[in-house]
Amino acid sequence: MSRYGSLTEVNDMPLDDGVQLIVKAKEKQEEQRAWDLYLTKYSYMDENTYIPFEDFFKPQQQKESNESVEDILKGVKESIDIFRSSNEGR
């Protein structure tokens, strides 16, 4: 998040924008970790074992949930309520 600003700035954003920014920051962080691991493995690769970074790093697909839509929406509503109540004291 440091490259995208502080969490204070995220708290002042609309909820959708803040969540999108946090998700993007998390994706970039995962890609950086994969790159660091790839560089370590690269030194041990030869022409038979070489794989390009794009093949090495394929972000995992979102896992499917067995929860019903109603349960998911209930959880989202609870999260939003907690978020809003924590911002009311400001």
Write the layout of secondary structure elements.
Elements: H1 7-11, H2 15-42, H3 53-56, H4 69-88
Tell me what the structure shows.
- The protein is built from 4 helices and no strands.
- It is mainly alpha-helical.
- It has one domain.
- The chain is 63% helix and 0% strand.
Task: Describe this protein with a few key phrases.
single chain, 90 residues, mainly alpha, 63% helix, 0% strand
Quick synopsis:
This protein is an all-alpha fold.
User: Ranges with pLDDT <50 over ≥5 residues?
Assistant: none
Largest sheet: none
Radius of gyration of CA atoms, rounded to a whole number? 19 Å
Count the beta strands. Answer: 0
Helix and strand content put the structural class at mainly alpha
> Judging from the principal axes of the Cα atoms, what is the shape?
elongated
Please count the helical segments: 4
Integer count of domains: 1
Query: Whole-Å distance between the termini?
Result: 22 Å
- Mean pLDDT score: 81
- What is the beta-strand fraction? under 5%
Helix proportion of residues, in percent? 55-70%
Order of helices and strands: HHHH
